[in-house]
Specification:
It catalyses: adenosine 5'-phosphosulfate + ATP = 3'-phosphoadenylyl sulfate + ADP + H(+). Its EC number is 2.7.1.25. One of its GO terms (molecular function) is kinase activity. Pathway: Sulfur metabolism; hydrogen sulfide biosynthesis; sulfite from sulfate: step 2/3. Keywords: ATP-binding, Kinase, Nucleotide-binding, Phosphoprotein, Transferase. By secondary structure, this protein is an alpha/beta fold. It has a single domain, classed as 3-Layer(aba) Sandwich (Rossmann fold). It is about 40% helix and about 15% strand. The chain has eight helices and five strands; from the N terminus they run αβαβααβαβααβα. It has a five-stranded parallel sheet, sandwiched between helices. The longest helix has 20 residues. The chain is globular, with a radius of gyration of 17 Å. The structure holds 3'-phosphate-adenosine-5'-phosphate sulfate and adenosine-5'-diphosphate. The site of 3'-phosphate-adenosine-5'-phosphate sulfate (PPS) has 20 residues, from helix 2 and helix 4.
Length: about 200
């Protein structure tokens, strides 16, 4: 940090916000292949939390890659920068007392380690949305796998760019054997069991 930047302490702290909200703030970080089910499960999980009276906000490709990260692509370097900025934004949301839901492919262990480092390990719950490449390709929600196979998209995760599965995620959802509602219940139960909500 520049030597000329002096931090000002604000009266309204994260813990005061958490007290008023009646819950802790942290990040639910969904990782998985494109089409694995991250957005679908994140969206339903947010709905469930929201109607329980929890303050939430969801970050995903739609509100991030078209705004703050417009111009970043899918090279290894651009993904790292994409995720670095998302982690910094998530950290601000957590400071604002909000349970932040982030759904990004975040393909590499080192990408996610950077996120954990920025957000803080205790403030991040990693959720692995585990769906085989075959199933994601069968779903092909956005028609991108077809394009990637045809060589029309380069560096597509799972095709010609790697995806490294988390080694020890807090929550592991296998979508080929778990329905969306069951996945959401699993997340809510985890949060209740660990006294996060
Ligand atoms: N090359 C390549 N690889 C992977 N995904 C691609 C690519 N090009 C475009 N898309 C679409 O962008 C979405 C992934 O963006 P993310 O910001 O989550 O990716 S990353 O975390 O920076 O790797 C991803 O969205 P989801 O399907 O929601 O995961 C794709 O629809
Ligand atoms: N058990 C499941 N969990 C999540 N999504 C599922 C499941 N079964 C089928 N799907 C479907 O898979 C697709 C996943 O797409 P999406 O949520 O956009 O994935 P991602 O955000 O990971 O790219 C959706 O069409 C969803 O309805």
């Amino acid at each position: 940090m520049s030597e000329n930047i002096v931090i000002h302490d604000y009266e309204i702290s994260r813990s005061k916000r958490n007290k008023v909200n009646g819950h802790e703030s942290f990040v639910l970080w969904f990782t998985g292949l494109s089409g694995s089910g991250k957005s679908t499960i994140a969206n339903k999980a947010e709905e469930e939390l929201f109607y329980k009276g929890v303050s939430t906000y969801a970050l995903d490709g739609d509100n991030i890659r078209s705004g703050i990260n417009k111009g970043l692509g899918f090279t290894k370097e651009d993904r790292l920068e994409n995720l670095r900025r998302i982690a910094e934004v998530s950290k601000l949301f957590v400071d604002a007392g909000i349970i932040t839901i982030a759904a990004f492919v975040s393909p590499l262990i080192s990408d996610r380690d950077q996120v954990k480092h920025i957000v803080g390990e205790n403030d991040l719950i990693e959720i692995f949305v585990d769906t085989s490449l075959e199933e994601c390709e069968r779903r092909d929600v956005k028609g991108l796998y077809k394009k990637a196979r045809a060589g029309e998209i380069k560096n597509f995760t799972g095709i010609d760019a790697p995806y490294e599965a988390p080694l020890n995620p807090e929550i592991h959802i296998e979508t080929e054997t778990t329905k969306v509602d069951e996945a959401v219940q699993h997340i809510i139960e985890y949060l209740e069991k660990t006294h996060r909500i």
